[in-house]
Design goal:
Layout: H1 22-60, H2 70-98, H3 100-119, H4 125-157, H5 160-191, H6 195-198, H7 200-214, H8 228-248, H9 262-284, H10 298-332, H11 340-347, H12 349-369, H13 372-391, H14 398-425, H15 432-463, H16 466-475, H17 481-488, H18 493-501, H19 506-510, H20 512-517, H21 520-526, H22 531-563, E1 569-570, E2 595-596, E3 601-602
Length: 606
């Protein structure tokens, strides 16, 4: 083992004389531009439906507050994210085997066709809901093909000393897409709900043609067989686990939530067991799908743990903010319920702005100074923002709310790009597709888990306060005591989803016959814009305290994981392109020396 200067990554484009060659640089920018468009489109569609659900349900003639329709609502919301979380590792591995660009290009086409099918939904009612869910799953397959290979294509195209900037831009697009989707969904759904899917079609057609004409595989191909047993157990285990989380927040029998439902418990325990079997299979497989050996690299392991926990905290935040704005704050400030999706997206813009400002800057700086300071500091900044949201009143002054969103956006931007760069820099070139897929799995699984975790916490917080508040509030405006008591005893999930969708559920809950029998002034108050948000504001704040306390704890644990990533680690390949690389074990890094191994180089932190 001998010390040597850091060298550029040998897997950077080799078609020309060197990394500074103009042709190589032009191709790198084309790869960055196209993959950024692809990832932006895929992540926008992960969130665009969230804000558009009221318009979608109105458009297909389905009442989202009917208990029988809750499953449709949840799977429209989560189906896309579940599919992406389940498939990205497999599709990343297929990219390593058959070409990342080939899988990526196919993903662009699949995503575009599915978007057109969604926009052309021919039915109404439950048939339309089922069609939308199925096509969202197909769209998710295309999205997984895009996200699984985009980071690997960029890593192949850029040398190590420019990857932070490139991956920073790409990751800013990926996470900014989840925020921009909220604004875009609000704007387009005001016009027509089908427009949220039509908007993808021209971009998708242009992006697909551009990708097929411009992108080429610069990475190594790995001669391998598909790990069918690993793929199957991973898909079954993760799908079961995420489905259990989805149904766990629905009422069951006389319980507020479904965590005691035998089917939920079976799926939850079964999912964990099958994932355990999957881990055993992967340790023994000759050519595993999930490269568990990569977790021996401290930078890779710590980065993915921080990514998973950060996604859990951030995803829960997004949903709570939508409920807060659409269900409470906007109606209290004079906005009609039909307008709340649009304005909720607009009022959340500081979150996007903070991310867009901090993301590219931190990505470029991490090339020089490493990821640890930026990613850890970003998570701490986000935790401070969550603390601020916990402390402000439910009916807040917007400037203070906007500043807190800006801080959280800056924190997310500081974390995302350096963390992704550190993860991708740490792995051998021929495993970048798998590593990119694993990274996406952690991020998307965290987002799906956050829905179950934070909705469950919010429901638990509401359950202790909301029943009495609803009963007293309705009875004080002329609703018969027995009717008010019955409504107050209903599971809080109905009120929570009403707030999430920006609906006033009072008329639905009380019923037109009862409203006709009470004094007109009381009936007008009950069905007015301010009664329901005023009624649930205090119980909701009680739930918010629980939710944001958990978000702070999770984010600080993520910061601790990020802090443990060690010094700057960049893998440099020294083997022939036809050879299979063994996984590097993380060597201990001295404070001031560069240590080379048989297949990598470690750069110490500055």
């Amino acid at each position: 083992m001998t010390a040597r200067p850091a060298s550029p990554d040998s897997s950077a484009p080799t078609a020309s004389a060197g990394p500074d060659d103009a042709r190589s640089r032009r191709y790198a920018m084309v790869a960055l531009s196209n993959t950024t468009v692809g990832v932006l489109m895929a992540t926008i569609d992960a969130s665009i439906v969230i804000i558009s659900l009221p318009a979608i349900f109105r458009g297909i003639g389905l009442d989202p507050l009917e208990p029988s329709n809750i499953s449709y609502l949840l799977w429209m919301l989560m189906g896309y994210m579940v599919v992406v979380a389940v498939l990205v590792v497999s599709l990343g591995r297929l990219g390593d085997m058959y070409g990342r660009v080939r899988i990526y290009n196919a993903g662009f086409a699949v995503f575009t066709v599915a978007s057109a099918a969604l926009a052309l939904t021919p039915w109404t009612g439950s048939k339309a809901a089922l069609w939308l869910i199925i096509m969202r799953v197909v769209q998710g397959i295309g999205g997984a093909m895009l996200t699984a290979n985009s980071a690997a294509i960029i890593t192949d195209a850029f040398p190590a000393n420019r990857r932070g900037m490139a991956l920073g831009i790409n990751q800013v697009a990926a996470l900014a897409g989840s925020f921009l989707g909220l604004v875009l969904g609000g704007v387009l759904s005001e016009w027509n709900w089908r427009a949220i899917f039509w908007v993808n079609v021209p971009i998708g057609i242009a992006g697909t043609i551009w990708a097929y004409l411009s992108l080429r595989d610069n990475g190594r191909r790995t001669a391998a067989k598909i790990d069918w047993l690993g793929n199957l157990t991973f898909a079954v285990g993760l799908t079961s686990l995420l489905a259990a989380v989805t149904y766990g927040i629905q009422p069951y029998g006389g319980h507020m939530m479904g965590w005691t439902n035998p089917k939920v418990l079976t799926a939850l325990i079964g999912g964990v067991v099958v994932l355990g079997i999957f881990a055993v299979i992967e340790t023994r497989a000759e050519q595993p799908m999930f490269q568990l050996g990569l977790f021996r690299i401290r930078s890779f392991a710590a980065g993915n743990i921080a990514l998973l926990l950060g996604a859990v905290a951030r995803g829960g935040l997004q949903f709570m903010l939508i409920i807060w704005l659409q269900g409470i704050w906007l109606p209290l400030h004079g906005y009609d319920y039909e307008q709340t999706p649009l304005w909720a997206g607009i009022y959340m813009l500081p979150l996007t702005i903070g991310f867009l400002v901090a993301g590219p800057v931190s990505g470029a700086l991490s090339d020089r100074y490493g990821a640890k300071v930026f990613s850890t500091g970003g998570l701490v900044a986000s935790a401070v923002g969550y603390l601020g949201l916990l402390l402000i009143p439910t009916n807040f002054h917007y400037p203070s709310f906007a500043l807190l969103l800006l801080l959280i956006g800056i924190g997310s931007g500081l974390f995302a790009a350096p963390n992704s760069t550190a993860i991708m820099n740490a792995v051998p070139a021929e495993m970048r597709g798998s590593a990119s897929g694993m990274r996406s799995t952690f991020m998307n699984s965290g987002s799906v888990l956050s829905i179950g975790v934070f909705f469950s916490l919010m429901i638990a917080g509401l359950a202790s306060v909301l029943p009495r508040t609803l009963t007293d509030g309705l009875a004080s405006h002329g609703v018969p005591t027995d009717v008010a008591t019955r409504i107050g005893s209903l599971p809080p999930v109905g009120s929570l989803f009403a707030a999430f969708l920006g609906y006033n559920p009072v008329e639905h809950l009380v019923g037109s016959d009862t409203l006709a029998k009470i004094p007109p002034a009381d009936a007008h108050t009950l069905t007015g814009r301010e009664f329901f948000p005023s009624l649930i504001a205090s119980p909701f704040h009680h739930g918010l305290v629980i939710v944001f306390t958990m978000a702070i704890v999770i984010t600080l644990i993520a910061a601790g994981a990020s802090l443990l990533r060690g010094g700057r680690y960049v893998h440099v390949d020294e083997m022939p392109a036809t050879a299979d690389a063994s996984l590097p074990a993380q060597p201990s890094v001295a404070a001031t020396v560069t240590v080379s191994t048989a297949d990598g180089v470690v750069f110490p932190a500055d």
